[in-house]
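Fold it.
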Amino acid sequence: MLCIIRQETDPYFNLAAEEYVLKHFERDCFMLWRNEPSIIVGKHQNTLAEINIDYVKENQIKVVRRLSGGGAVFHDLGNLNFTFIASGENHKLVDFRKFTLPILEVLQKLEIEAKFEGRNDLTIEGRKFSGNAEHVFKNRVLHHGTLLFSSQMADLSSALKVDPDKFQDKAVKSVRSRVTNISEHLKKPFTVLEFRDMILEHVMESTPGAELYSFTNEDVEAITKLRDEKYISWEWNYGYSPKYNFRKTIKTNGGKLEVTMEVENGIIKEVKFYGDYFNKFDPAEIETALAGAAHDEDAMRNALNGFEIGEYFLNVSKEELLVTFF
């Protein structure tokens, strides 16, 4: 097994690195890595339904879709991520307990009673500190999990907070669980990087043939290419979302304004405005202009260029109108 410690904290690069190793390495691999503040959404989720868009923009939190299913999670430098990539027979590939066992063994050494509970969680005293997900590619499985060590819980809660009434879709909704940091349960304090090194040491000692590996220049070049072409793209992070309906109502100086949208693959198929507003020109012109645009602020702002919004919705500004779309 190759054991890879990654120093990069760019979530786009780190998610790309997982796919690259999964598809281009033949040996089993184990990786430990961290991300700067970011939200990692499950492959089958509607991104906009999982995030607090205003908080994400204000705090410049990156949003990235991963290969595996499951729910959205918040990462910061107080959260340690681990990845196992292994080959095997298809019917034996998915095994959450197998890949989380080394983590539980390390915590046992630290005299922390941690358990595997539910379908994919690790808990301490009934509180979740690790969520896990898997993705199968041919005869290989990618298993990765979070390890909340000293994460900022307020950021975690705020970044994933969203109004459930805005969206109606068939995507998987993240389950909000009671969570805890591992650091709260230590007998003596140490850092997240020291914890990382303990896990690495345990995996290497308990795995015959384990050896350290660093990405070569060729590896980094290929991962960076995948990052730039896929993982940083709007098409992957937002456009890949399933078909959904969006609805939101706001109060403006011009009255109540409600918008409904049908969105597929991140592209607006239909927009309808309702409310008790007054108008000089028919808002149907704006509805037509927005159809075909991406459900993205910049794309929608461009689609509205050339319209005097106050003529279509009296006493409503362009910025107010844009708020109704997110």
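The chain has a mean pLDDT of 91.
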